[in-house]
């Protein structure tokens, strides 16, 4: 390392340009759905966390699903917002997102059904009932947003949004 000049050391130490912020991502369907999933998922797990969920095993599952997918959605959101998916071009991102959204949809179905079935109107704490009922509603809406994301991810994976000229060029290449 002693034989390297200062400019060579500086070039080899820098990993490249910093990630750029993609402002148009917020306006895309993927960005809008990810924002909605993050907000709705936050509502689900915060409403459950505000109750005595530890006394009921069913709410532990709802808490796990909502918190797990909330964190993963935030990670995917930051990845796309900072355009990090372009740096890792060897990963098939449309396929990864389609699988992620499909798994999230199925597990949110189970969380919604579990949460809705465990809500008891004769709860000894009225505020727990209200929060659990609201969490059940928001879990349903979150499940729907993941289902819509699965649909759009499938279309992106299959390339159904492209025009005929683009699909003919890529099919024969």
UniProtKB/TrEMBL annotation:
GO terms for biological process: myelination. The keyword Signal does not apply. The gene is Pllp_0. InterPro entries: MAL, Marvel, MARVEL-CKLF_proteins. PROSITE patterns: MARVEL. GO terms for molecular function: structural constituent of myelin sheath. It is a multi-pass membrane protein. This is Plasmolipin.
């Amino acid at each position: 390392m002693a034989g390297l000049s200062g400019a060579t050391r500086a070039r080899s130490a820098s990993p490249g340009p910093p990630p750029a912020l993609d402002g148009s991502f917020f306006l895309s369907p993927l960005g809008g759905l990810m924002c909605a999933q993050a907000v709705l998922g936050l509502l689900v797990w915060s409403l459950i966390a505000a109750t005595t969920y530890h006394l009921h095993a069913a709410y532990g599952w709802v808490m796990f699903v909502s918190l797990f997918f909330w964190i993963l959605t935030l990670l995917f959101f930051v990845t796309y917002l900072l355009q990090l998916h372009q740096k890792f071009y060897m990963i098939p991102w449309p396929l990864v997102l389609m699988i992620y959204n499909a798994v999230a949809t199925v597990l949110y179905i189970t969380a919604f059904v579990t949460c809705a079935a465990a809500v008891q109107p004769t709860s000894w704490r009225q505020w727990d009932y209200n929060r659990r009922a609201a969490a059940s509603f928001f879990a349903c809406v979150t499940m729907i947003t993941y289902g819509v994301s699965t649909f759009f991810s499938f279309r992106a994976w299959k390339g159904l949004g492209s025009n005929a000229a683009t699909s003919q060029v890529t099919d024969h290449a």
